[in-house]
């Protein structure tokens, strides 16, 4: 009997030790490594760094950030399943490829990172429209190319285009052709980068000078600067959009209008399988445009990096982010902060 009791005690002790061992294993043993695309605009880099902090401190994941951009990241995820997460992907121009990958079980639309969608278009400063109301329409813009002189050749008007690598570079080029803006006297400018586009708009606005170009919302600049979205005077044609407006070098684009852009957090299906709790967080996480406009203005005013913005957000907006995670994960995050 003593032998039997001793044997049972040994089994019980071994069981306790095994449970204790598993209880102190790092969460990353279950979560694994997650690669997140760090896109090169303010809201996206903020989300990437915020996701990194929450997944690392809250769930114990091992997170790597890699440089990203709309077209190359979306294409890489659709074709190669890399990276694991695109926190803020404007999917309109990639919808067909992404939908195919989702239907084939390779990618997931985890959730809407911008709950109300994004808004793209061509914009002009309100002070120009106040002086000349017809500048609120594309036909009025075409009649007044001389009001938007190209600094390199003032005999031409300038439409400031979209940075290279963004899906809007294709749509902007096709719409430039569709509305015959070259014939109207405009050249399509290349800002070179997101910073170049921002600098062009800020410089013109602060000096009260003319500006006509591509931009999107929510952004700090459209919260800071009073801009008017140009009415294209046509409705959105989805068939034309899918077959031509979003297709590189479409030979005969027709006038079209941007629809409200769908902005998703896109992940690989593999991530959903290997770390369901991480996926659940990404599916729950999303921002309203009004909050994002104000937060991006704070980032701009403080010249905050994505990492600084993420830390500021987590320290000051627990009422928002705590709803995206479990109470235990929230406790871990607060302890890390």
From TrEMBL:
Residues 1-29 form the signal peptide. It comes from the Bacteria. Coiled coil: none annotated. It holds the Pfam family OpuAC. Residues 33-316 form the ABC-type glycine betaine transport system substrate-binding domain. Keywords: Signal. This is ABC transporter substrate-binding protein.
């Amino acid at each position: 009997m003593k032998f039997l009791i001793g044997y049972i005690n040994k089994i019980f002790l071994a069981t306790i030790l095994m449970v204790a061992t598993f209880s102190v294993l790092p969460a990353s043993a279950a979560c694994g490594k997650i690669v997140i695309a760090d896109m090169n605009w303010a809201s996206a880099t903020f989300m990437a760094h915020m996701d990194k902090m929450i997944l690392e401190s809250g769930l114990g994941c091992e997170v790597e950030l890699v440089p990203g951009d709309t077209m190359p990241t979306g294409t890489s995820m659709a074709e190669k399943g890399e990276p694991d997460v695109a926190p803020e992907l404007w999917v309109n121009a990639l919808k067909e490829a992404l939908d195919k990958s989702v239907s084939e079980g390779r990618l997931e639309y985890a959730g809407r990172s911008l709950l109300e969608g994004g808004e793209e278009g061509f914009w002009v400063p309100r002070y120009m429209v106040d002086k000349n109301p017809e500048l609120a329409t594309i036909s009025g813009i075409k009649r007044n190319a001389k009001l938007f002189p190209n600094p390199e050749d003032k005999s031409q008007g300038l439409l400031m285009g979209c940075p290279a690598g963004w899906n809007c570079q294709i749509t902007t080029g096709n719409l430039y052709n569709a509305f015959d803006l070259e014939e109207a006297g405009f050249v399509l400018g290349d800002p070179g980068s997101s910073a170049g586009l921002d600098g062009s708009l800020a410089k013109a606005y602060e000096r009260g000078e003319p500006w006509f170009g591509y931009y999107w919302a929510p952004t700090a600049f459209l919260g800071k600067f009073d801009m008017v979205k140009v009415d294209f005077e046509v409705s959105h044609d989805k068939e034309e959009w899918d077959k031509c407006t979003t297709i590189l070098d479409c030979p005969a684009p027709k006038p079209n209008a941007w629809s409200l852009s769908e902005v998703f957090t896109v992940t690989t299906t593999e991530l959903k399988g290997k770390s369901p709790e991480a996926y659940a967080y990404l599916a729950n996480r999303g921002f309203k445009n009004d909050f994002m406009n104000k937060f991006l203005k704070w980032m701009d005013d403080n010249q905050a990096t994505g990492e600084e913005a993420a830390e500021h957000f987590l320290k000051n907006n627990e009422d928002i982010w705590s709803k995206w995670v479990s109470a235990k994960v929230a406790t871990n995050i607060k302890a890390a902060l």
